[in-house]
Amino acid sequence: MVDGSWMVIIFLLFLEYIILIIIIFCSVISVFNVTGQDGNKVTDEVILDYIRKSLGPESCFPTTMRSVGVKQTMDHTAIELLGSDRPGLLSEVSAVLTNLKCNIVNAEVWTHNTRAAAVMHVTDEETGSAITDPKRLSLVKELLRNVLGGGNRKRGAKTVVTDDSTHTDRRLHQMMFDDRDYERVDDDDFDEKQRPNVDVVNWSDKDYSVVTIECKDRPKLLFDTVCTLTDMQYVVFHANIDAEGPQAYQEYYIKHIDGSPVKSDAERQRVIHCLEAAIERRVSEGLKLEICTTDRVGLLSNVTRIFRENSLTVTRAEVTTKGGKAVNTFYVRGASGCIVDSKTIESIRQTIGNTILKVKGSPESVPQDSPTRSSIFSGLFKSRSFVNFGLVKSYS
């Protein structure tokens, strides 16, 4: 017969086991296998330390902002732009900033569904620091608003001063989402072969909605989809990600922030369209041109003017300045959406400089056809996905 002391020990061990189980099930454990842009293991301690700080207790998660405007730091002034896309728009914007004695040190520009959004970091040409004069900032906003609103009077630019700070790519997603760029102007003209395969169904035995995404893999795809779900007020409880090979497969188990799954077909369609837009915004359509040269005031204005004079349209742009060097990446197409011919590129290279302008990638911009769903499901997640166990029912 077991005496009282042993009974106490057994009870305490059992209690410790129960507490451990509760901790395991209440904890959020996420495992990511990542590589650098070159496809190799990340070994740079600076990058690893940045990841630790970003995900650790020192991290600061930004809130959603609903406006576009100008914000300042000690080093630069950030200008957020949103308006109708059209050929030559980036050239006009950069020309206005150059005329106002503003030097563009960093910029990210996206275009999608007839809309254009940009986050630009500018400095005063004379001081090399942020612009602080309220009258000058007001003039910058007024002139840029006129440029951005020129192509579409019904959906002009928004300009509001804000002190909030957020990640540039995250902010661009928020700006275009708030602008409802996911509402297609003419859905019949969109090539179905280029559209990501996104589906949303409800899990029959649980209060989850299951989102599945199949599309061509690319850098920051996971970032784009998760940010959009978050901005739409959904919480991801479980996820399966497979990005081995040219195609990517993502599966998310989500609930709305109020604890409910997707409730209606209208909500389901909105989730699908918003995720499609999030994936398409960063798709690099067109020919990739990279310019590396000594930074100077008006550089972006001069380069984009040359593009415009040669009937090129910029579909996406990344402008960075480090150590006095400007590294600018542009994705360009013909003014009417056609492929850029070699004679045009050669003319631009002679104007800018053969050693400064590098042509990368291929002018072919149409993605390859996506494989069928069965070929994707035959991979890694065939045995792991709840969808394939018949536990999910669709809206019908």
UniProtKB/TrEMBL annotation:
PROSITE patterns: ACT (PS51671). The chain crosses the membrane at residues 6-32. The keyword Membrane applies. It holds the Pfam family ACT. It comes from the Eukaryota. Keywords: Membrane, Repeat, Transmembrane, Transmembrane helix. Gene3D superfamilies: 3.30.70.260. GO terms for molecular function: amino acid binding. Residues 78-165, 288-368 form the ACT domain. Binds amino acids. This is ACT domain-containing protein ACR. It comes from Pisum sativum (Garden pea).
